[in-house]
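hey can u check if this looks right to u? its 507 residues, i copy pasted from the old doc so theres a chance i mangled smth
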Amino acid sequence: MKKIYIGIETGTLSIGIKNLLSPLQEIAKQQNYQVVETGGFGLYAYEPMIEVEHNNERHAFTKVTEKDLQTLLTDNKPNFNHSCYAGKTQDLPLLKCQQRFTFRRVGLNSPTCVQSYQQEQGYEGLKKALSMEPQGVIDQIKESGIRGRGGAGFPTGIKLQTVKDSPAKQKYIVCNADEGDSGTFADRMLIEGDPFCLIEGMTISAKAVGATQGFVYLRSEYPLALQRLTQAIENAYQVGLLGKNILDSGFNFDLKIHSGAGAYICGEETSLLESLEGKRGVIRFKPPLPAIEGLFASPTALNNVITLATLPEILLQGGKAHNEIGYEKSKGTLTVQLAGNIKNGGLYEVPFGTSLKTVLSEIGGGTRTERPIKAVQVGGPLGAYFPEELFDLPLDYETFMGKGGMVGHGGVVVFDDTVDLSEQAKFAFEFCAHESCGKCTPCRIGSTRGAELIAKIQKKQDLDKNLEVVDDLCELMEETSLCALGGMTPFPVKSAIKHFPSDFGIK
């Protein structure tokens, strides 16, 4: 039976795609089609989007309304003369411009069907890993050059090597799925669209370091991700892909989900571990590092969703294939999440080294308001605000750090020329004050004083003196905060003052 595909995920649900599901199923039944609910491609400029299978190819209909459904099919085939017809899915410009590595299966099939995942070479990477010695698995990951996609960009292979080499009776794999950065949704889309990829990646990590238990720390605001991941885990257990003697290899690995409670600070690894242990989410002192003494004082490999979900493809294709993609020390692809005042908002997987200008103009299409872009914040609420003269920068960890910013999780939030950067600087301090765990004084008190200082600057009160105090405060927070929340809050503040001085009354 031919199929009709509809991407059901949180983003498409927010624009009402579920209203199309029931009438689409009725029409499909009449035309002898089967409706398949998939994850979304993340191409929100095309949504609501429906795909119709014809001659083993998928044809896309974009911006579909309930009224359009009535004429989507004619004579048991796609209506190629339909006003919503956009061509073959693979030829859609916003999909064709990408290099999908981690996300190559997202949007293709039912997210919780094991057989569909395996038809797209799912679990082939794990089979290779199970046939290798643990050190061989780590060597492939090292060769790939993959670095943590959660923000810091720490080499994943080195982290796994540290856990493997740490002697302990019990070791853990923990996935940080507490995606809290503004303008980011890659973790959610991966879990909603391809949960087995994450499960397989965590199992590969477990094999590499000798762990037998894994936890996914999932953001509580993601109910659909929780539902699909729970179902996928249950299905994996049923067919012997989790639990005891996985794929008759003698290797055991169990996986559980832990829902967070809405605390941004639990995106920081040590605070996450405290929460996972049932304690208040507060930063731990380092050292010891979690790789040596993490969950329940045991060696713990803690990684971001996208990092773990990339491992199956690395094992499948080999570390060298991944290493050949990217730019300088930033290997592989970056899942750019375009948000804010941008025409083509969505998720786009591109090689590291792609310029910010390419992402904003060629992919993003400029602002929705069609006004000039004034500032772009990359890397979440702790990322720097960059002006137009920096848009030619390649998306690369070292390049962005050299300019006082960070790539982070790949979130890109766009602002047109009506934005007031002094308000954004004040928001950075206010955000830090609201989300601080309270353990260290520079973060807890410094952020509050910072917001007060920016408010005075906005009123032109002792402008030069207060700007100097803000500069001193930022230096103090950077140098003495216990974690990145306090330590990186100065990034957006300092960049806003440096690149947009007129918004602060500086001549």
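The chain has four domains: 2-96, 114-323, 326-416, 421-504.
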